[in-house]
Amino acid sequence: MPVNFTAIDFETANSSGASACSVGLVKVRDGIVVDRVGWFIRPAPGHDAFLEWNIKIHGIRPSDVVDAATWAEQLPDLVAFADGDHLVAHNAGFDLGVIKTSSTVAGLAVPDFTYVCSLQVARRTYQLDSYRLPVAAMAAGFEGFAHHDALADAEACAAIMIHAAGRHDADTLEELARISGVGIGAIGPIATKEKAATHGPMALNQP
Questions:
Q1: How many CB atoms lie within 10 A of CB 68?
Q2: Into how many domains does the chain fold?
Q3: pTM (2 decimals)?
Q4: How far apart are CA 118 and CA 186, in angstroms?
Q5: How confident is the model over 34-62, as pLDDT tens digits?
Q6: Model confidence pLDDT, tens digit, residues 176-200
Q7: CATH, residue 121
Q8: Which of 10, 67, 74, 165 could be 170's S-S partner, Cβ–Cβ 3.0 to 4.6 Å?
Q9: How many CA atoms does the CB half-sphere of 51 hold within 13 Å?
């Protein structure tokens, strides 16, 4: 089953999309996890306040990230690990929004990424009372992980997509998206080009 992608998950210090404090990345090749990595991120000034609510969720405190690399310093490593893959995330709009907002705040170009949302795929694959990551992951046979640890969450997301591909007899991530009726999103210059192709040249001037 040659399903290839990189699963990603961010934890944030507060509600700002530029407050990423941790990231987890999991690479899947032929339906098998072949690599995983995670690290702390020091949020940008003005976006670096840690709210008690967020700390309660993920357990990350300011002292954990004081010596961590900034977004600008670590973005090349993130892009290199993904290496042109489609990204997959549970509620992908949040995680891809972190990439967009953090890059913009850091004064960097938003990198090109295409992505598929595992939450949407789970909704079209399983019959569940909830599609929260732990519940959907359990349906995929992935249990007992440390929810809100970025790397563990990325692994759970990967497990959902691998299992769903098997359920739908999909040979590629693109085929899984098509069969389950889930769109493949995009951010970065590629997204602007796709928007222009769909809506005409004026789309290039729209946010």
A1: 16
A2: 1
A3: 0.92
A4: 15
A5: 999 999 999 999 999 999 999 999 999 99
A6: 999 999 999 999 998 876 656 554 4
A7: 3.30.420.10
A8: 165
A9: 12
